[in-house]
Amino acid sequence: MTEPAPPALATERLILRRWRDSDREPFARLNADPEVMRYFLRPLTREDSDAFIDRIETRFGERGYGLWAVERTEDGLFLGFTGLAHQAFEAHFTPCVEVGWRFDRFAWGHGYATEAAREALRFGFGEVGLDEIVSFTALSNAPSIRIMERIGLHRDPRDDFDYPNMPEGHPLRRHLLYRLKREEYKP
Fold it and tell me: Is the pLDDT of residue 161 over 60?
């Protein structure tokens, strides 16, 4: 990684940019927080978190988009990530591009995830030219479901699925799938 990379995208309050070495510590902290990671298999170790950043950066090089580090414009504070991720696990809707996010607890409730996800959609449909963007989460993840609905994605219950990366019988295995096609997108 180089330090610093120029901003990739900007909204009124946020910069969505490539990752910096200085993001590693706050990212590891949020990934280790059991509350932040409540809808995932487990919190991440520092090594897992660093490896995740490395994979994100590799994918930027391969695809020209990815999960951007998100910082607040007013003070440069690292908040988490939002972006577009190519998904190819085995499911009826893959391969696909997912819009996703993860923010530190102090950043919850301020509309940052919604604002950043809207910008990721704009980029995905506009600059990348995607035909469809999806998002999915565990059945019980009400905060992310609200964001998916706020940004215009919609759900057909027939699309819900068992996430193959969760073990059989795990309470988070059942996932809801939300979709948005380019012709339905309203900036």
Answer: yes
